[in-house]
Amino acid sequence: MSFPQSWPAPNRAAVFVLSEMSPARRITLLAAVPLLVLSSSGLTAELMFDRTSALKYALTVGAAMIAIAAALAPQPLLVFVALLVVAAPVATFEVDLVGVRVSAVVALLMLTAVPVFLGLGKRVGPTALGRAGCFAAVLIAVPIAAGPDISEALYVPAVIAVVAFYCARASVLPGGTSVVLISSLISLMTQAALAVWEYATGQQINLYGGAEARAAGYFFDFQTQPRPTGTFFDPISLGTVLAPVLPLGVAAVLLLVHHRRRLAAMATASAVILVGCGLSLTLSRMPSIGALVGIATVLVLVPRRLRWPAVAQTGAVLGVLVAMAVSVGGPSLLLRATSVTDPTANGVVTADGDRDRVGFWHVALEAGFDHPLAGVGVGHLNQLLVARAPDANVYTHAHSTYLQIFAECGVLGLAAIAIIGAGFLRDLARVWRRSPVLAAGLAGAATAVSVAALTDVVVIRYVAVAAALAPLLGLVAGLASRQSADG
Fold first, then answer.
1. Which of 17, 43, 194, 244 is buried most, with the most CB atoms less than 10 Å from its CB?
2. Strand pairing category for 203-206 and 100-103
3. Distance, CA of 202 to chain centre
4. Up-side HSE of residue 40: CA atoms within 13 Å toward CB?
């Protein structure tokens, strides 16, 4: 393309860039630039929201900047997926958008759908995990239909499936795996930093109005120590999403050291230590145990030639982590740790709550055995708990993901879990052939989540937890698809 000689060089460059763009990118860029100007002035926030705030102003400016980045990026899908993964912990944040109440996760899923429907990027080939998900959906259809609220029962599984699909689409693109991993690390590092801040200041995060004084009931205090939650509903939710970071981070450090990228390895190790401190401050026992079991899984699965270096590096990272966690958490952390061996013993501070939990397990088991095929229906277990367990209330659940599913979905639900697990392992085996250290990290992360799910239901109950963990499934499916395509 030729330009008049009188045109300044920047003008010629801008016209050339626009001329080389696809029509969709050109329209997006030409619309986003004036939108950024309007948003920066505050006019967009005033037009879109009933009440403005600093956060809503930042959202409007950020949206315009993201649109510009997507128009200029070689792979626009990666921009949207990165945003989705980073924002997953605030999935339940809602705003009044032109009089309509919209949650963050719905808005982000709709935004990410745009490049997918425009055909930007690559398709994900057939995967064992994808097929397993379809079979599992068929199996749990009857228990969900038997529940009191079908839409509510479908919400969390649907979010898991869609987020995993988008992350799988991203993983098959050049650099997509790194984008998903780094975005997830940034997101969960932020949550860990918030946990440390909440513990240090005694304040909690309120997305609608900044920080506010800590409420003891909300934080589930242990003795005099507040249990931080980040932007999640409770400390167990925060602990559950932080747990898989440790085994995956250990694998990443090993991989970076092996490739002599020492600076990146040190940065990743620092991130692991920060996340580990955040996890320890939640005082969530099973997520902490899950993280340790996940790390052990990594050390077992890494190639033999790397095992001893991996043990040494992991030992060094864990040594620093434990020292920092104990110095920050103090006696409460040590006392909480000692309750792991016998949580219902006399003298244990939380013994009464753990005895209640055992009672809830028994009720859930009875419900599953009384209705072995399809359970009592998704959403009906609480009624049985209130009727049969003395300390149960309308918010009580089985305190175990597996028992909750067995009670409400019966053998069909357990079969669905088994099928998804088998599909995950089959795809993971394909990833291991090409990237054994990464596969070991992903296996360790999945192990951490599986162990954490033994004593709570946050994975299937809260959409923010589900959205934060779903990228793990998407990474495995996407990497397996890419390995198959590469032969």
1. 244
2. unpaired
3. 25
4. 8
